[in-house]
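[step 3/7] fold_predict: job queued, chain A
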Amino acid sequence: MTNILPRQLDDLGLTLPPIGQGTMGIGGYYEKDCTRDAEWIAGLRRGIDLGLTLIDTAEVYGAGHSEELVGRAIKEVRDEVFLVGKFSAEHSRVSQVIAAAERSLRRLGTDRIDLYQPHWPNPSVPFEETAEALEILVQSGKVRFVGLSNFSFHEVQKATAILNPMPVRLVQQEYNLIDRTIEEQLLTHCEATQTIILAYSPFLQGKMVPGDARKTILDDLAKKYERTVAQIILAWLLREERVVVIPKGSTGTHVEEFAAVKDFCLAPEDIHRISGAYSPRISWIPVSQISVRGGGYTTYEEALTNPLGFDPSPLDLAQSILMGNMLKPVKVTQELAEDAYTLTEGKIRFWAWVLAYERRSLIPAFVEKCPERQGQNFESEAQAGGSIQQSAMNHSAWMRKKVVCA
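[step 4/7] structure written:
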């Protein structure tokens, strides 16, 4: 059976492995966690030995501890690793980008980051300023190449033009069976420009719903190919030649499972079977029906005044939305009641949407059903779109979707 081939950066004669290693949660999520350091380092090293030599990290992961662990893992094999780093949105100004890069280099214990990129766009900072800092870092040799993380298609186009003649080598986006947003425009753009897509959260951060009736298809194919469901999912994502996936392996056994995906490909009919079952479906949910809980902002007034000092603020993002920039859909869980949802991901984006379009509008969302509702018809979702194209991921379409709810 045909193997999955390395990805080419054609004009450089450089290849990247189709499967790398993500590190979100390694060394902690947003706070430092040292309880599993030895295990994390061993897993990263095992992945490198198996050819998973692209490692993605960020200054925010584990409050910097993820970078420290990656640095310890690659110390003896630095030249074998393609290291991807990200700086936080609040560090988008020239001096901040450069200072963030210097801190990351120290934590990583290296003199260079192979590819460096903003973690999220910051509409409160002109991208020309961020681009200036990236150019300085490339010219100094501390960064080899630049990329863009979590930028919409239109933001990628704008940023690419500003960075020119310095090319964008990689675009990092969430990509999994549920979130297929990149397939509408971004994937075609990357194929045309020979840009690599770095796909994070291939397993929806471990939230693939076991009770989802569609999962029986994955189970059937796992039996057919004598593989695991995780391997089937990765193989489906890797059907696209410009995609590199970065699952997080918590143990050496996990990275061995991921590495084995390089040795097989799904048959075309099986790819079509998965694609049809998990057809893109973005729902439009009344914001008034969504509960917002937990840390961060839980009220309109908090989002408006931004007392925690988020940069960009919800109001900054609201203004960006009104200018036509795409909002990445939020994620919600549908509760037992038909008209009740709980926000599970994208709190700042949620409040930005509310500030932009008021509390009586609809917001684009990916809907996960609570366990008690599993097995019910997915078509019962309110205002569900049949595909990303039909969901119209641009500002004019969103404005047409804006309605007043009772």
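[step 5/7] annotate
The first helix runs from residue 37 to 49.
The longest strand covers residues 362-369.
exit 0
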